[in-house]
Write a structure and sequence with these properties.
By secondary structure, the chain is α/β, with parallel strands linked by helices. The chain has helices at 3-19, 34-40, 58-65, 69-75, 80-94, 142-163; strands at residues 24-28, 53-54, 98-104, 119-126, 131-137. The protein has a 5-stranded mixed sheet with strand order 2-1-3-4-5, sandwiched between helices. α1 runs parallel beside α6. The mean pLDDT is 95.
């Protein structure tokens, strides 16, 4: 996805948030703030984006958004359990209506047979109790994985929560 396409997607997300008088937050690990960056590239984003969290280290995940040390030890930072906790913790910490969480292995190092480079987990949570987790495997170099993860997070937020208003957990 190009920068222009990311900008258009961010604007569409912002439009739907503004329509619903809602806010969003992001808890990011492998994307390093890219989701927050593209959201705040949109003029007027302060109406629907108040804060985000770059929780690159396990300590940051625990201290800033309340991920449990037990989950990190048992499942690892790149796991369904941890992104679920990241999304829930960011939602509470930001007092937002929607949260997106991302944790993955962008590479070029850090992958394993179980979690190869390009593995990214996504967590979504809403103030009304809905939640969703998904795992994707992206190809390419570090920048390509991070760009694809950013696009996937925003597209899923748009399609599953804002546009279609997903009603199931």
């Amino acid at each position: 996805m190009t920068d222009d396409q990311l900008n258009q997607l961010s604007a569409a997300v912002g439009h739907l948030l503004q329509r619903d008088n809602a806010t969003v937050t992001a808890a990011e690990s492998c994307t390093g703030g890219w989701i927050c960056k593209v959201l705040t590239d949109i003029a007027g984003s302060s109406a629907w984006f108040h804060r985000g969290f770059v929780t690159y280290s396990n300590d940051a995940k625990q201290q800033l958004i309340g991920v449990s040390g037990e989950s990190l030890a048992q499942w690892g930072a790149v796991s369904e359990q941890v992104v679920h906790e990241m999304a829930q913790g960011a939602l509470r910490a930001a007092d937002a209506q929607f949260a997106v969480a991302v944790s993955g292995i962008a590479g070029p190092d850090g992958g394993s047979a179980e979690k190869p480079t390009g593995t990214v987990w996504f967590g979504f949570a809403t103030a009304d109790g809905r939640a969703l987790t998904r795992r994707q495997l992206f190809a390419g170099d570090r920048e390509a994985v991070r760009r694809q993860a950013t696009a996937y997070a925003l597209q899923t937020l748009h399609d599953e929560f804002l546009e279609n208003k997903l009603d199931t957990v």
